[in-house]
Design brief:
The protein is built from 8 helices and no strands. With 210 residues, it is mostly helical. The chain has one domain. The longest helix is centred in the middle third of the chain and has 40 residues.
Amino acid sequence: MRGQLVVANDAAATAHNIVTHELRYRLGFAAELIEILCTVPLALIFYELFKVVNKRVVLLVVFFNLVGTAIESVDLLNHLAPLTLLGGGSYLSAIPVEQLQAQAYLSLKLYELGFAICLVFFGFFCLLLGYLIFRSGFLPRMIGVLLAFQGLCYLVNSFVDFLAPRMADLAFSVLAVSAVGEISLCLWLLVMGVNVPRWNEKARLAVSGA
């Protein structure tokens, strides 16, 4: 929702879109906040599911998940900042409109950079989770390969943003294609679930090995 309102390199047009479609902009913020809240129980679910494969690796999965979530949560302040800057409060009357629009646009650019930092941690999360899926035996190995590839794409996308921002659009197009990893995992868990006998076997081996 937010992306549809941003006009590249045009602070005035972006500010106009945000003010005109304020509810849509706020809904975008609320949707992202709900997504962030869901990542905490998801981390616990993944821990319980994959601790029978490799406890140390799954702890790293939880770590990267929670740290990335914390960064994304703080970054949401940059998402809300344009609403404050463009809200027309009396305390802003001393600042020229053009300057407020530029600051609002800058907040959105900082939000994008903050999200790129978040994706570094999410990239390692996907790489490690893909490894666990590949080794698990109770989920298809191909999903693990696809998810690990997506994690690598997240890392490339973020570092392109940091080091060669002019190539960011090309890197993002590759990242969009790689999303099949996340989609495959979600659909498999929702429709097929895990192979319970094989999970139980892994759990028995983990207990006996301990």
